[in-house]
Design brief:
- InterPro entries: Globin-like_sf, Globin/Proto, Hemoglobin_trunc.
- Keywords: Heme, Iron, Metal-binding, Transport.
- Pfam families: Bac_globin (PF01152).
- This is Globin.
- GO terms for molecular function: heme binding; metal ion binding; oxygen binding.
- There is one protein chain.
- The chain has about 120 residues and is an all-alpha fold.
- Helix content is about 60%, strand content about 0%.
- The protein has a single domain, classed as Globins (Globin-like), CATH 1.10.490.
- The relative contact order is 0.18.
- The protein is built from 7 helices and no strands.
- The radius of gyration is 14 Å and the shape is globular.
Amino acid sequence: MPQSIYEKYGGFSAISRVVMTFYEMALDSDQIGDYFADVDMARLIDHQTKFISSLLGGPASFSDERLEAVHRALAITHDDFDEMGALLKAALEQHGLSEPDVRATLALIETKRNVIVHRDAA
């Protein structure tokens, strides 16, 4: 049985470290940093770790309906989503994921673009 990306890199704790690195970069981003101004970052990091873990073969699961409901009021644009992807790519690379695993992870995140980006976004 092939090993999932989640298992290959050490599971929840490894994904959590990637997510923490991602948010360190996101908070400094001129494009998306303002989204996190009044956010409970510890809670957000926990949710994001569960979300990414679920995409990579981990135990949690998130419905598209829930993802859409959580992001609806944020008015996230395609440019914001692209910035998030670029920062996540950098975080994944910084934590030693192979290039094919980085691409696979970003492809999985991309499958959620239509439920995360605001419907009226350009």
